[in-house]
From TrEMBL:
It is an enzyme of class 1 (oxidoreductase). Residues 176-283 form the Fe2OG dioxygenase domain. The keyword Lipid metabolism does not apply. This is gibberellin 2beta-dioxygenase. The gene is GA2OX1_4. The keyword tRNA-binding does not apply. Its EC number is 1.14.11.13. Catalyzes the 2-beta-hydroxylation of several biologically active gibberellins, leading to the homeostatic regulation of their endogenous level. Catabolism of gibberellins (GAs) plays a central role in plant development. Converts GA9/GA20 to GA51/GA29 and GA4/GA1 to GA34/GA8. Residues 329-348 are annotated as: Disordered. It comes from the Eukaryota. Keywords: Dioxygenase, Iron, Metal-binding, Oxidoreductase, Vitamin C.
Amino acid sequence: MVVLTQPLVENLSHIKTCKYNNTDVFTGIPVIDLLDPEANTLIIKACQEFGFFKVVNHGVPVETITKLESEAVNFFNLSQVEKDKAGPANPFGYGNKRIGSNGDVGWVEYLLLTTNPDLSYQKSIAIPGNSHLFWSLVNEYVSAVRNLACLVLEKIAEGLRIEPKNVLSKMLRDEKSDSCFRLNHYPPFPELLQTLSGRNLIGFGEHTDPQVISVVRSNNTSGLQISLRDGTWLSVPPDPNSFFINVDDSLQVMSNGRFKSVRHRVLADSMKSRVSMIYFGGPPLSEKIAPLSCLMEEGEESLYNEFTWCEYKKSAYKTRLGDNRLALYEKKPQPNPKPNPATSAVAQ
């Protein structure tokens, strides 16, 4: 059973008048107030240093958040037989413990959904109960967080001083955008499993997201960790009132390595359930992914070979969760040619 540790979302009417520091005082994770006049600059810095940050004053309606999380809790509280009717995840639908098709497993169950309601994938997923209400809430929530993702991308463009400012966000707004949405449930795990494993139980293994940008929210249960540049893992305090933003692989490429796709994972909790909701903002399948020419400085060389999102998506599905998917597309430095002895002798 999904057990909530506090009310879904408290009244957030106070947010508009709150002042926030630029970082979380305990972790140093950047906290960006989207109403701050300096938000553009702060977002760029966060993308460069962490590839990850929290946003407040995000504009997503409280009611939209609460209602969908309530429906997610209702779904994950169903019997296993009922939940299995919405699966298997191939790739969309209900999944349990198995993550992808390459042997990765975790202490998690999830619903992976397309954000395009016209695709047959979504129509084939059987959600028990009031499915019309469920899909209506999903569409409402996705629309709101898509707007948030686009706002962040437009602030990135403004911060980088590239034109037009929708050069990134237009990929998510495109009617053929290949975005998706995932609802995760990490059940409490028996302490016996922790004793047997002798370490923290992995809810969702370390990985980067292949898309452009991800928008994450969870209930008030911890578990999310991000990898810092030195390889250490930093626990992210949960905040059900805010959203967390991930830089994804495609944005790393388009920034020519200025931003780094954040490696992250989730640890399971022995006492409390964790429910998270993630919007993965993806471009159309035919979109060419390459460093933005409007961003490249004179003489700057591209670090990546161009690819389409379709090509990258297919290659990503063939890898394990923790693999460096971008390695296949990195331009390798050309070795210096060996000197010709004859010409060297002349030069001397």
